[in-house]
Structures are given as C-alpha cells and as structure tokens.
Amino acid sequence: VMAFQKFSSLPANKVVGMAGILDSSRFKLFLSLELNVPVKEIEAMVMGGHGDTMVPLPRYTTAGGIPITQLLDEETIDAISKRTANGGGEIVKLLERGSAFYAPGSAAAIMAEAVLNDRRRLLPCSALLNGEYGLNDVYIGVPIILGKNGVEEIIELDLEEHELTSLQESANFYKTQLSEILGY
User: Fold this and answer.
1) Are 57 and 157 in contact (CB under 8 A)?
2) Residue 184, Cα to own-chain centre: how many angstroms?
3) Can you tell me the distance from the alpha carbon of 180 to that of 10, in angstroms, rounded to the nearest whole number?
4) What is the per-residue pLDDT across 25-57, written as a single tens digit (0 to 9) for each?
5) Is 61 exposed, middle or buried (0-12, 13-18, 19+ CB in 10 A)?
6) Whether the predicted pLDDT of 149 surpasses 80
7) C-alpha to C-alpha distance for 34 and 30, rounded to whole angstroms
8) Per-residue pLDDT, 146
9) Would you say residue 61 has pLDDT above 90?
10) Burial level of 90, CB count in 10 A (0-12/13-18/19+)?
11) CB count, 10 Å around CB of 63?
C-alpha cells in the first residue's frame, strides 16, 4: 500500500489497504464456529499487518454485543488467534489453488461500498499513520472511518501496553520489509 501511494502520488487518505478487514473476517469465522453463532453476530477487531504479525484485540471483539473475553477462556482465544494468523495457508491447502480471491473480493466489495455510498463505515483497514499509536510514515491495519473521501478518520483505541507493543512491532516489521525492497 505504501509503495502504491508513493508511486501514484495520490493523497494518503485516498489509498487504503485491506489488512485488518481480511484478518478480522477470518477471526469472525473461527469465533463463530467455536461459539456456534452466526458470523454476522460477531464484530471483530484485528489490527496490524496481514498474517502472522496481526494483532487481534479480544477486548474489542464481541458476539451479540458480549466481549468474547466473557464467553471464551484465554487459551481458546489464543488458539483462535493463532489459527487466524495462519488461516491463509489453511485455506490455500484446502482449496489447493485459486483461493486467494474469496476474502479479498469480499473485503474489496465492503470497502468500495463504503466509499461509493459514503457509508462512513468503521472498518479495520491499512491507513497511513502519522503519529497515531506512536507510529509514523507506515501503512498498517487500524480502525478507520471509510467514506466518500477515503480514510476520513483514524480511530485510536485505548490499547494495553502489550497490544500497543505488538502493533508497533508489526508496523516496524513492514517498514523494514519495505525499506529493504524499495530502499525507503
């Protein structure tokens, strides 16, 4: 996302990625299976990078409005979080090929609808941070308001120290990767 924004010269608010929304959808699915409730009953919040550097936030994840921390024990939540981080590989293994378009297609549709219809949806998406969460000049999955102007607002959640550290480590991993690949 960062490379696209730099090369396209588009304003940062017009460039948004789907990191958080992809991992949140997997998290929702695995939670719905564990809790035996419909996916639509779950609101999940996953921040950070896509995949194994993701930062699930159980305190901000609910089923029917109830925090999952009141419905599941810590061990179960940790296992679901790990499964979510590795979910892409699990899906590829099950479908063997051509599987990388279902979730991204759904995420893209949700994001496009939010922009085209000015829904101002609160979604976990990759946005350029400039001081939020103590991070600068990096795209990383955070809760945003997505509407006709693209990223209309970045929401700063009150994170616990370990959550903030995990988010910053995820962002720094991607900054390092980008600098190695593109020389930024």
Assistant:
1) yes
2) 23
3) 23
4) 989 999 999 999 999 999 999 999 987 899 999
5) buried
6) yes
7) 6
8) 98
9) yes
10) middle
11) 22
Residue 7: per-residue pLDDT: 84
Which is higher by pLDDT, 97 or 60?
A: 60
Token digits of residue 38:
């419909």
CA distance 46 to 3: 23
> Which residues fall within 8 angstroms of residue 115, CB to CB, at 6 or more apart?
146, 147, 148, 150
Cα-Cα-Cα-Cα dihedral of 77, 123, 90, 74, to 10°?
A: 0
Contact 142, 124 (CB under 8 A): yes
Residue 56 tokens read as: 């699930």
Question: At residue 29, what are phi and psi to the nearest 5 degrees?
Answer: -60, -50
Compare 53 and 164 and report the one with higher pLDDT. 164
At 99 the pLDDT is: 61
At residue 5, the pLDDT reads 87
Partners of residue 64 on adjacent β-strands: none
- In this structure, what token pair is assigned to residue 19? 């990191």
pLDDT higher at 98 or 121: 121
Supply the residues annotated as catalytic: 50
What is the chain's length?
184
Strand pairing of 136-147 and 150-154?
A: antiparallel
The closest of 119, 113, 129 to 49, measured between CA atoms, is 129
DSSP 8-state assignment for residue 17: B
